[in-house]
Specification:
Elements (H helix, E strand, L loop, with lengths): L3 E7 L5 H9 L4 E5 L3 H8 L6 H7 L4 H10 L8 E7 L16 E4 L4 H11 L5 H18 L1 H9 L17
Parallel strand pairs: 1-3, 1-4, 2-3
Helix pairs in contact: 2-3
């Protein structure tokens, strides 16, 4: 039986890493952490700390990543494949039919808590600066229809995506 492919979409500072680590502790689950990051860095030229290591560790062609995530074999043979994604890593050309072969969840956190969390690691972060960055990402995704598609067809299924662990997998 093919694995259930669960794409969890979020932005920075939304506790997405904590949730991913929680899923990684399940015996029935394998996780992938930001699989489009190298493709995003290659396409944008963004100078991020650790850029060279990220580019060396992941495919830089988004089509290779999309194919692997939607139809490829998971990194480990498990019934659940949890895929942690950052919405801002997606460029318009990366969106397509491959998304229809994956279940999706949108992870949202109270914006005030996101900003407070950012300020702990980026002291110069102001609400105005964060809102400008958030607006830019939202505008980019809305142009492609991704935001509308996500809220209409995916949010309705959020509660039924992951079944509880079986007794066998929790031991």
């Amino acid at each position: 039986m093919p694995p259930r492919r669960l794409a969890v979409w979020s932005g920075p500072r939304t506790l997405s890493t904590a949730l991913m680590r929680s899923f990684s502790s399940r015996r029935d689950c394998v996780v992938s952490d930001e699989p489009f990051y190298a493709a995003y860095l290659a396409a944008t030229g963004f100078a991020h700390p650790g850029r060279d290591e990220i580019l060396a560790s992941q495919p830089t062609d988004w089509r290779v990543v999309a194919h692997a995530l939607s139809t490829g074999k998971p990194p480990l043979d498990r019934p659940l494949w949890y895929q942690k994604h950052m919405a801002h890593h997606m460029r318009p050309e990366m969106l397509g039919d491959w998304l229809d072969r994956i279940d999706h969840v949108m992870l949202v956190r109270d914006p005030a808590r996101v900003i407070a969390s950012y300020r702990r690691v980026v002291p110069t972060m102001t609400p105005q600066r964060r809102w400008r960055a958030t607006f830019a990402v939202t505008a980019r995704t809305a142009e492609t229809g991704w935001a509308i598609r996500a809220t209409t067809s995916l949010a309705l299924r959020i509660m039924s995506l992951v079944s509880p662990m079986s007794e066998e997998s929790s031991q």
